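Bumping with the actual sequence this time:
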Amino acid sequence: MTDGASFDFVIVGGGTAGSVLANRLTEDPNVSVLLVEIGPDPPMESNVPGLAKYLINSNLDWSYNIDEDEDAFPCLADNRYRGHQGKVLGGSSSINGMYYVRGHPENFNLWARAVNDSSWNYNNVLRYFKKSERLEDLSILRSRDGRFHGTNGYIGVTKVNNTYTEKFKGVFREMGYKFVRDINGKDNIGFSEQLITFASGLRQSTAVAFLSPIKNRPNLHILKNTLATKVVINDKTATGVVVTDNDNNTITINANKEVILSAGSVGSPQLLLLSGIGPSEQLESLDIEVIEDLPVGENLQNHHVVFLVLKLPDLDESIPVNPYDYTSSLVTGHVSLNASATSPDFQVLAQVINDQGVVSDCIMFNYNDQISEHFYNKVKGHKVVYMGITDVKPKSRGVISLKSLDPKESPSISVRPYAEEEDLENIVSYVQNIGRIANTTYLKSIGAELVTLPSCEDFEVGSREYWKCYARCMISTGFHYVGTCAMGSVVDSRLRVRGVERLRVVDSSVMPYITSGNTMAPTIMIAEKGADMIKEDNNMRVWRS
């Protein structure tokens, strides 16, 4: 790659969204596309589901430091959690838990209303979910839910099969929850067996699914191990990007048609800010020329998680725990305490893991040594049901801002999960409700035990005061960062940066509101839809369903 090289489209970030975009834009043989990615190819370990935890804090992980906050994170090491994000082709889809959750239809109807663009409502985005998907579960495809799924897309999707799940269906039914066949289908509230992006023995990252099959297209160029440091903007028109490789060689690459940022909800706002697009007061304080005054970095949202640990007796040897497959996943719930609710209020992820799994999760979610040792000592030699409970409609917002002009320095990431008191009250209600699990007939009969927190035992275990103490201590991250370049404020409904020509953002940062579940699937959908928008605006051939 030489200084001054030109391509029609330059995509910054070869992650979950960027890999999809590179595939779709190069479908037109008359345009050239450069995909710039700071990381390498995903290694073999990325393809093995049970090894995902070992990729955390590796060279494939940004592992951003969230700003330290003793009040917000009293039980986390250094009073903060790590912002784990993929730093590799495929991005977070190469290192995550592979959960394929689209979100409730109302999520997308809310987006459409926020930007006054009906193309974002559920009925219109459904075809993009189906376009990318290759569902391999016959029980769903042969049911009434089959019409909600695709079978010819690039990304393989499979249902987790676990015979032990049947016992837990009875447990959650006893607690008042219903079971549905497919949370992405007609019935969107209830517990279900989990769909994951896994097929043919391989993780279906967007690098594996969308880039590998097209790596020989002559109009696709991928520049790995290279950091984009600035968008070149002349007369409020993006004309290219400045990039630096691992040897600190810096060059400028020109974009004849568009520059597209797909660097994620941390990387994309950071690059916009460094390029002079963002809150004028912040930019002026760093002597950055203000090109466009926009609320870049604001509206940061994340799913925060509170974990419950249920110790199981040794007598139950039928629970499969195998780090090299995905049978540890039991069920996932997208549920509400209100029986008449039309959309879920919280998510429950339930897995069966062993004592070593508890240790690795304590490390991944950055609990301090005292908390980690307490849980390990309590479950040593046992298998456990590990449950993560998440408020999927958080009101609290964070912000991303620059610390310096150095593009290699992580930005400030300020997150306060309980900044809005309503968020704390809600999660307490959800955790208290799920905490009833230890009193269900089956689990009582085998002597299962909910592990309590000593620092909260001044309160009656099971009381609202106890669970409020517990929720304050055990709060951590679901790694679902969105909203920092939101539609309606930073970009328009066609994902174009306001006030700047030939510059778009296409990734999770454009979500005005976080979805009610894991964010990988909707990010892929955004990329599919964004690719069609780019094609339309550049007189390219557009796919039609």
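The tokens above came from a reply further down the thread. The mean pLDDT is 93.
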